[in-house]
Amino acid sequence: MPLPALLLLISTLLPLAAFGVLLFAGRRLGNPLAGMVGTAFVAGSFACAIAAMIFWLSGGAGGPGQMAGAAEWGAGKGPIVMPIAWLPTGGGISQDHPGYLDVGLYVDSLTVAMFSMITLVALVVHLFSIGYMAHDRNFPRFFTYLSLFCFSMLGLVIGGTLLQIFVFWELVGLCSYLLIGFWHEKRSAANAATKAFVTNRIGDFGFLIGMGILFYHLGNVSLPHLHAMLHTAGLGGPVSLADGTKFAPGLLTIMGVGLFMGAMGKSAQFPLHTWLPDAMEGPTPVSALIHAATMVAAGVYLVGRIFPILTPDAKLFIAIIGCATLTIGALVALVQSDIKRVLAYSTISQLGYMMLALGLGSWVGGMFHLLTHAFFKALLFLGAGSVIVAAGHEQEMVRFGGLWRKIPVTAVTFLIAVLAIAGTPFFSGFYSKEMILRDAGAFSAYAAQSALNHGQSAGGYWLFFIVPTAVAYLTAFYMMRCWMLTFWGKPRDQKLYAHARESAVMYVPLVLLAVLSIIGGKFLGIEDLLNWSMRESSQYCTQLLAKDSGAAAGGEMKFAGFATAWPAHLPNEESLGEDEPVVRERTASQRAQIEGHHLVLQFAFWAFAVGMGLAGAVYWKGYAVAEMLLRIPPARWIRNWLYRGMYFDELYQVVWVDGIILGLAAICRGFDRRVIDGAVNGTAAVTRGFSGLAGWIDRWVVDGMVNGAGELAHGFGAAMRSAQSGRIRLYVMVLMAAVALGLAGAVLMALSG
Amino acid sequence: MNTLPVAIGLPYVPDWGQLRAFAPELWLIAAIVAVLLTPFFVKKPNAACGWVALVGLLAALVSVFVVGVDGTGEHFRGLMVADPVSVFWKGLLLMFVIGIVLMWFSTTAPTMHQGDGPEFFTLLLGATLGMSLMASTSNLLMLVIAVELASLPSYVLAGFRKTHLAGAEASLKYILFGAATSSIMVYGLSMLYGLYGTLQIDGPGGLAQQIATSGGSALLWMAIFSLIVGLGFKISAVPFHFWCPDVFEGASIEVSAFLSVASKGAGLVLLMRVMMSFASAQAYESTPLLNHLAVLLGVLGAITATVGNTAAFVQRNIKRLLAYSSIAHAGYMLCIVSLLVRGPAVKADLDLASTAAQVVLFYLAVYLFMNLGAFTVAGLIERETGTERIADYAGMGRRSPLMAFCLSACLFSLVGLPPFAGFVAKVNVFWALMQNGSWWWWLVGVIGVNTVLSLYYYVRVIKVMYLDDSSSAPIWPHPLGAGVAVVCAAILVFMLIAFGPINRLAGHYSHFYGVDQTTFTAEFSSSQPPP
């Protein structure tokens, strides 16, 4: 096994070992030893991930996917793909083990980057939790769940097939459920956990449907093979598979939307976003790790992985959903008063950005934002956690204010995170957000132009640029508002203020994440890694295609890969199937085109300054100005509407819970009572009857004959009677009868046949 | 014609190459001799014999891996072959018997009368030798010798607990029943010899080929049916199963476990070999003989599975329950053997037959660990509490969580529930049957219904262990036996993960020597005429 893959595998398994240790010995280890054990294992995991990254970048450990000519573009390695034949399924085309369902590893630059991010955030959160959870009764249990989560999340990322991703997907869902409901004595926490679980299941139906379509048509759900197979004929028309069948683009769109539904649930996309704010009932470190940095990003990761097999229609759907989500999240975040709910809605909004980017074809932008967002959002949550601890488990910003004097380190690091998420230049968020907005602008410009050329209206496409840009202003505003209300101005609750104190244990995680939030954009080379990842996948697919079609080695096939998918939403777009260099040129020309619109980009650029400036002005003296603004007639209505999350919960309650469930329940009850119970009872009765019959035969026929035979065998003496010779005779009698019957049958058959 | 008289009068000395392929058997013979000599050197020979047997079995197992498949054709003038199937089976068998010996240490050893050990292990190894020969035989004479070599020690083993009344009774039943069936079988085989004048099964002029060219007759049918009776006894197919529950209940538990897998497995492999020879010789013409044979085996399998499962419903003794469960599993495997015959008959498809062999081999591999684990736990509990009644397992989840978990894993696997290897084995069965459609859908239905039925009585045991409470004291099982049980449970879980490679291994070894050489160009068999 190539070294990076081996290291990543160890990195994945270490948290599992921690889970095993804590599960059996957690109680005995107690507080804080259990936490330290968990942290130590995750630290080992982190070390392995970093080592893997180093070997990966040094390029000396190329796996089976080592590619000729790869040196010219970077890391010098192909993806490491290690499929194992697992379950026989009969069919299956174009795969390493025909007739089998594969499982295996898939390691490319994205995997390596994700591993570093996940293990780092996990390590930081573990450290933080030792302090945060110090007084909790169930301290060991908390770390047990946390370890299981780390294992599941890493397994999800390293999985080479959709099936594996799905399995770990459910596992992280389970961990999320357990951790949201960690304080299940609180009714609200238990409810929130159930809500998250159920909402995610809705998305998972889609996931299963999408996977089923793929499996039915291709007999395989292994990632690189899917890419290769579906790109053979491009996505424009019906896709010809190796066996000559066609895979209609409509079906492919349904497949893409289905898989995206899974991502909608996990990444809290509209309309399945309502569980995430409630998930804040869980402990704050959990919110930082699971509901900000890693698990909710798994949906984005999934879409990133299936990106090459999405049709333009599916991508457009993703873009629209992303656009709606980022708007809703930002609007609702504007008026929240609970510090964690602000962050939750902000997370929803940012995830919307990532989805939008992927939908518009900005693969690097979406994944880049995923990685940078993980750092600053984890920092925000841990900062919030620090505030909450300092405030004696108070979360309402109404009672905060002026806390920066009491908890300066938290205030400064929180401000850094706010600057990053607002897109301040030289902070990490700036680079990823700029890339998304620039690509969105390029897409809009190109799409609009193309639409005009085809005599269609171009207005709609511009929304894909205008909306996210406008929301960037809102983002800066609500994040700065959050900071101002918490740390600035006069203390609004003197008693709380008086007792506020920082805990030193939490410094290290905060500072570490703050540093990463600053340098993550330009200095960690994330962007390069992502670009390589794209190239790796393309090249590997090319190799696979060459292998499958038996084409001569060396000649690079016409393979579009990631880059062509970029402008592929357009009607009658003819760019598919072209050579890659051509595509790259065009991409560059489109970038140039939008960069010509300097004015447009300026809008996006200044969002941070305007938004944060406005927020600073409005909330300089606490709520005073805001209260004044609310007096303007419809403002309070709008504020209440937003404050309740646009009444989505109430809407779902009426439509789904009351409307359908109550009605459906009546039908189901009837069905259950009449049909299912009938069938079950019937089966049970038949079974009972059958076994009763067998018992009856045993008791009366067999025993009766035995007894009768026993009478006959009376003279055989005591020794023989103790051996129940009658029964043996019966046995042999039956045997002989069977033999006689069989022989007779044999003769008959031979005579007749 | 490969007739006997040629050999008579000429001294036959097998050369090294001939012997080498049967190193496992030679090691077993050496172990038997060593076990018999042990009491001369040791005061308390029971445990010492156990260790000697263990070493001998390990040596034999290693030699299986070292020697592997021998492709030089028939050995000892066509009496035996060392083809892939037989090698795979020997590996399984030896692993299993090693488990049985370990189980003996942890269950019966302390209560066994000092000085009985040498006899016990001589018999155990002797039966093992017979069972490994059964898989290698390619001659009717050898077939009879092998079956008897496997059976006779088994009869004694069944009644080895001399003071135990039920054991003596079981042994007697076993002998009488075995005598009846094997007399029928030998009678049938003599008819075959009378009909065709040869004892050789495969090869030019062998029985299979002659039957293919001369077609069927009533006598042939009777002969084949008699053969099925003899092997059906070993497999415990209904209606030749009567001995099974009584013997399992009466014998000590490691003997029951031994018979449940080793005896059945050897019978199945031998049956597969004979059927495969007949089928492959006629592969290119659809003969009514093969069709009827397939239907016969399929119906036999379906009846066996159904009777086994329904009878298991009312059992209250864990050993009887496992006995009926083993009958049911033999039924499932028989259904696949019918496929092995039918495939070539209908579709002239020897690959299909090979697939069927693969499914049976994989099933045997999984079945081995399921049964070994279940019997081991039952034995350990019996040793600690002295009870075999299922009702007395109440509260086992609390009294011995590890044992309860291992037994649950084995039982769930026996049902064929997903996280365990039994699931994969059963999926294999369904998949192979469904691939052939038509008539096989009936078997699929029967096995499906049977699986649902079996769920009830297996899970009932688990229910008793976990849901029924009792105030009995916790028990601490013997560590060696606990180790065996844990390893079995772990393998059952692990096999699902490593399922592909193991299945492919089984596929790799699912080839018989002697079937059509042009079809089976497996890398093992380079056909050379016997010397």
What would you say this structure looks like, in words?
Chain A has 753 residues and is mainly alpha-helical. Chain A has 27 helices and 4 strands. Chain A has helices at residues 3-58, 109-132, 139-158, 162-180, 187-218, 223-231, 249-266, 275-278, 284-293, 295-306, 312-333, 339-359, 363-390, 408-422, 428-453, 459-487, 494-499, 507-519, 526-549, 580-596, 598-605, 607-618, 624-629, 634-643, 648-712, 718-722, 725-752; strands at residues 80-88, 100-107, 239-240, 246-247. Chain A has a two-stranded antiparallel ribbon with strand order 1-2. In chain A, strands 3-4 form a two-stranded antiparallel sheet. In chain A, β3 (239-240) and β4 form a beta hairpin. Chain A starts with a helix and ends with a helix. Chain B is mainly α and 531 residues long. Chain B has one domain (20-513). Helices cover 72% and strands 0% of the residues of chain B. Chain B is built from 20 helices and no strands. In chain B, α5 runs parallel beside α11, α12 packs parallel to α18 (440-466) and α14 (350-385) packs antiparallel against α17. The radius of gyration of chain B is 22 Å and the shape is globular. The two termini of chain B are 14 Å apart. The model of chain B is unreliable at 516-531 (pLDDT under 50). Classes of the chains: A mainly alpha (753), B mainly alpha (531).
Provide a quick synopsis of the model.
The complex is a heterodimer of chains A (753) and B (531). Chain A has 753 residues and is an all-alpha fold.
